[in-house]
């Protein structure tokens, strides 16, 4: 990562507030009167929260096969976890810890927001960032498998936090945030040990492309994300 020039605390806070405007981050979604659930409780496959979240995706997408809803839970958490941590890493701010994580659950069962807990980590190495994200993601992957989804180490799950880090950085660059977003993306991608799940090409726009699918395209009229793997599909080329 090319270091972002050191700035005052006030400037850094202002940049993070702009990230709150751009992305679904913990500071941008107040819980209100919605349930705030410990992460371990949410991930319990025998409990109501995870199953309800998957069912909400099924309803919203009109999917006939429950695999899509389960994978979309992984997509949602991977996206929120990257939104909650990657901007701080890139801008040089202390990175929220996910070790005492809680989540906000919407009235329809949707995973609405993250509430990180524990001490923030100042200037973490890329490997330290990934240990925090993957430690939170691992119990979710196991629980989704217990509910009938792919195996816990499936790329269908792990492509979501890996792909999410690239999408966050692409959006920060597009919004004019300082620093070399592509260099940050390369460093964080390498730390995941799953570089094959995220394609980065400086000469393409968007320069980030996922190598796995979140399944939303299966919804009637769902369309493809700008960074979707399906832009490379043989069907589209025809």
Q: What would your notes on this structure say?
A:
- The protein has 238 residues and is mostly helical.
- It contains eight helices and five strands.
- It has helices spanning 9-22, 39-42, 48-61, 66-91, 126-146, 155-174, 181-192, 234-237; strands at 36-38, 102-105, 111-115, 198-200, 208-210.
- The strands form two sheets. A three-stranded antiparallel β-sheet has the order 1-2-3. A two-stranded antiparallel ribbon has the order 4-5.
- Strand 4 and strand 5 form a beta hairpin.
- Helix 3 (48-61) packs across helix 4, helix 5 (126-146) crosses helix 7 and helix 6 runs antiparallel to helix 7.
- The chain is globular.
- The termini are far apart.
- The model has no long low-confidence stretch (mean pLDDT 90).
Task: Provide a compact summary of the structure.
By secondary structure, the protein is mainly α. It contains eight helices and five strands; from the N terminus they run αβαααββαααββα.
How would you describe the oligomerization state of the chains in this entry?
A: single chain
Poorly predicted regions are: none
Q: Taking all residues together, what is the mean pLDDT?
A: 90
Which structural class do you get from the secondary structure elements?
A: mainly alpha
Query: Strand sequence of the main sheet, in spatial order?
Result: 1-2-3
Radius of gyration: 17 Å
Rough outline: globular
- First-to-last CA distance: 38 Å
> Helix count?
8
Structure summary, number of beta strands: 5
Which strand-content bin applies to the residues?
5-15%
Helix content: 40-55%
Main beta sheet: strand number and arrangement?
3 strands, antiparallel
Helix and strand succession?
HEHHHEEHHHEEH
């Amino acid at each position: 990562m090319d270091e972002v020039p050191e700035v005052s605390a006030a400037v850094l806070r202002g940049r993070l507030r702009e990230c709150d405007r751009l992305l679904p981050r913990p500071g941008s979604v107040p819980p209100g009167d919605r349930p705030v659930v410990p992460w371990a409780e949410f991930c319990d496959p025998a409990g109501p929260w995870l199953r309800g979240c998957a069912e909400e995706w099924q309803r919203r997408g009109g999917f006939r096969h429950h695999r899509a809803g389960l994978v979309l839970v992984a997509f949602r958490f991977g996206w929120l976890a990257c939104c909650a941590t990657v901007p701080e890493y890139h801008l040089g701010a202390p990175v929220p810890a996910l070790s005492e994580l809680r989540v906000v659950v919407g009235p329809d069962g949707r995973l609405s927001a993250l509430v990180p807990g524990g001490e923030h980590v100042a200037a973490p190495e890329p490997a330290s960032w990934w240990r925090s994200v993957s430690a939170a993601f691992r119990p979710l992957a196991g629980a989704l498998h217990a509910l009938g989804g792919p195996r816990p180490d499936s790329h269908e799950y792990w492509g979501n936090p890996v792909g999410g880090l690239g999408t966050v950085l692409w959006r920060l660059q597009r919004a004019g945030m300082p620093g070399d977003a592509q260099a940050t993306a390369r460093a964080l991608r390498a730390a995941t040990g799953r570089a094959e799940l995220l394609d980065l090409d400086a000469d393409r726009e968007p320069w980030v492309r996922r190598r796995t699918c979140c399944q939303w395209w299966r919804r009637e009229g769902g369309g493809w994300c700008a960074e979707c793997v399906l832009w490379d599909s043989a069907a589209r080329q025809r």
